[in-house]
Every structure is written in C-alpha cells, then in structure tokens.
C-alpha cells in the first residue's frame, strides 16, 4: 500500500452524518457525574480495580471489530477492515494480579 503525504493543510474526509455539539449544560452534567463518583474508584481495592478493568477490556474487545469497521467505513477505507479485525483478534491484554501491590500488564500476541 502506498501512502501519499502532501505538504500543507491536511485533507479531511467529508463527514456523511452529523453529531451536534454538546451544550455547556450537558458538559457540566457530565463533569458533575464524574465528580460525584470519583470516590468510588479510590475506595476500591486493587483486586476490584483489576476485575473492573478486565471486564472493560473484555467488553471493548467484543465490540472493537464493529467499531473499527464503522470508523473505516466512515473514512472510506473498507479494504483495511479485514486487517484491523485480525489485529484485534490476535492480541489480548494480560494483567497479572499475582502481585497485588504492583500489578503488571502487557500485550500478548496469540
């Protein structure tokens, strides 16, 4: 695959859909929701945090191929979809909880 890079202003693809910008009230409400729940994360044990992050990674991995396909379709890069799907299927996140005080994490190719 050849990638052509032009000097000057970047070229952005045309957006087919539209997402209206968030209002100040919506952003304030989102920040307030974060503020009101910040102590919940701090009060969780390391094991509980690891379990929550494991669940998040599993849930994300389940939707990642659809997310990538939708993004690539929006950018008119349909040919790369198959490569992206293989990429996500072959990599898994490994979190070791054997050392609770200092959990280690890394990527594994399988």
Characterize the structure shown.
The chain has helices spanning 24-43, 46-74, 81-90, and strands at 91-96, 104-109. It contains three helices and two strands. The longest helix is centred in the middle third of the chain and has 29 residues, at 46-74. The protein has a domain at 43-109. Helix content is 54%, strand content 11%. It is mostly helical. Residues 92-110 have low confidence and may be disordered. Helix 2 runs antiparallel to helix 3. The protein has a two-stranded antiparallel ribbon with strand order 1-2.
Task: List strands and helices in order, with pairings.
Elements: H1 24-43, H2 46-74, H3 81-90, E1 91-96, E2 104-109
Antiparallel strand pairs: 1-2
Helix pairs in contact: 2-3
**What fraction strand?**
5-15%
How many H/I helices? 3
Which structural class matches the secondary elements?
mainly alpha
Range of helix content: 40-55%
Q: How would you describe this structure in keywords?
A:
two-stranded antiparallel sheet; mainly alpha; disordered C terminus; 110 residues; flat; 3 helices; 2 strands
Summarize the structure.
This protein has 110 residues and is mainly alpha-helical. It has helices spanning 24-43, 46-74, 81-90, and strands at residues 91-96, 104-109.
